[in-house]
Amino acid sequence: MKKLRLLAIATLAASALAGIAVAHDYEAGALKIDHPWARPSIGETKNSAAYFKIENTGKAADRLVSAKADIAERTELHESVDEGGVAKMLPLKDGIPVPADGEAELKPLGMHVMLMGLKSKLEEGQSFPMTLTFEKQGDVQVEVKIEAGASGHNHSHHH
Ligand SMILES: [Cu+2]
User: Fold this and answer.
1) How far is the CA of 28 from the centre of ligand 1 (A)?
2) Cα 151 to middle of ligand 1, angstroms
3) 10 Å Cβ neighbour count for 65?
4) 49: left (phi > 0), else alpha (psi -120 to 50), else beta?
């Protein structure tokens, strides 16, 4: 009986932890990738998006040219735009510029890494690896945390 109770407590603690957004970041040269995260996938939806902030403390501009994650069949850099009340997503063919001594922010309703053809569901509390390729800095490995997100409404449904 005691063992069962302990297990229940551990499960509770784990689910409580999953709800807390723990900041994590990655440094590569003058670049800092701040808190990569993605929303949990909704139902059978095969698409999601990843967000993070890129800080550049260097004297030279850089550019995010692509992102790749094994969890998705395809990834694209997108920007969400509002065209007369209609939300659209446009591919960022020239990538995402990161100005010298500046930053670029990928966020909901803005620029994002589109994850298309998800091979598995994105479950809150889990994470997946993603490779960001920069024009000058090259490849940077990050771990994307799956979170419901503090901004906007929570789309995750529990079945
Ligand atoms: Cu998109």
Assistant:
1) 26
2) 17
3) 15
4) beta
| 92 Cα: distance to centroid of ligand 1 (angstroms) | 10
Residue 32 in this model has a pLDDT that exceeds 60: yes
Sign of the dihedral through C-alpha 39, 43, 45, 46: positive
The confidence band for 64, taking pLDDT boundaries of 50, 70 and 90, is very high
Type of residue at 81: V
Residue matched to tokens 């591919």:
91
| Cα-Cα end-to-end distance for the chain | 29
The Å distance, Cα 14 to ligand 1 centre, comes to 31
C-alpha 131, offset from chain centre:
11
- Domain definitions of the chain by residue range: 24-146
Element (H, E) at 133: strand 127-134
Cα–ligand 1 centroid distance for 156 (angstroms): 18
**Ligand 1 center–CA 9 separation, angstroms:** 39
Mean pLDDT within 56-81: 97
- According to CATH, the topology of domain 24-146 is Immunoglobulin-like (2.60.40)
pLDDT > 60? residue 156: no
**Model pLDDT for residues 79-90, shown as the tens digit of each residue:** 999 889 998 999
